[in-house]
Amino acid sequence: MTEIQIRKGEPVDRALKRLKTRLEMDGILEEVRRLRAHETPKERTKRKARAAAKRGKIRYRFTMPKAPGAAEAPAVTAAV
């Protein structure tokens, strides 16, 4: 269960903003919005395809292949 501690003298609106941010990061708000209305199998397939594409973009971004024709940095060797 997600909870936050209200600090002494903290305005309520700031505490609500922290709570909303925490819920968004945990994915709870997205799930509530998704479950609010009926989702057809076609919509579910589209949603899952979009999520997979997003994961693929992130995965590709961090494992990008080297550009073709890009020269690699020469190895540094010490002559003795």
UniProtKB/TrEMBL annotation:
This is Small ribosomal subunit protein bS21. GO terms for molecular function: structural constituent of ribosome. One of its GO terms (biological process) is translation. Pfam families: Ribosomal_S21. HAMAP family: Ribosomal_bS21 (MF_00358). Keywords: Ribonucleoprotein, Ribosomal protein. NCBIfam families: S21p. GO terms for cellular component: ribonucleoprotein complex; ribosome. The keyword Protein biosynthesis does not apply. It comes from the Bacteria. Coiled coil: none annotated. The keyword Ribonucleoprotein applies. Transmembrane segments: none annotated. Belongs to the bacterial ribosomal protein bS21 family.
